[in-house]
Amino acid sequence: MKTVYWLFVVSVALFICGIAFIIAGERTARAAPAGATAAPIETTPVATIKQIMVGITNPAAYVVYEAVGTKSTSKGVEEIAPQTDEDWQKVASAGAAVVESGNLMLTGSRAIDKGDWVKMTHDMMEQGKAAIKAAESKNKDAVVEAGGSLNTTCDACHMRYSRE
User: Fold this and answer.
1) Is this structure's pTM higher than 0.85?
2) What would the CATH number be for the domain defined by 49-160?
3) Which stretches of the chain are assigned E, i.e. beta strand?
4) What is Dmax (Cα atoms) for the chain?
């Protein structure tokens, strides 16, 4: 009988301790300051706008430009278009690279001005988003339209801001 009594007492004590630990943990979590979570890592821009254009924007834009079209060969005129899911994903990824390069061009002190530069960069980013949407829906005509609009946007910006 004494063994059963002691087992009961120990079980009750462990139960009460468990409840106490839960309450203490909850109070500690509530008392933690809001800024106690990990702070975002600060980044320092390294690339110039020209480097971003040459390394990211231009190659990605050319993937969109050249994704759909025609070419003349010895066999005649051949249609060019993404054929596989992987091909379409490359076009979507290129559109995403255009958008992200726009984000980079607006990061830190890179923006040349707060007016036309920002507007034209956002226009470029919108065309990149249109290319993503067109590729995700596997719409060749929409890829052509997005590529044409992207080219127009890029040309307008390059006319306003020298490529040098």
Assistant:
1) no
2) 1.20.120
3) 69-73, 76-80
4) 101
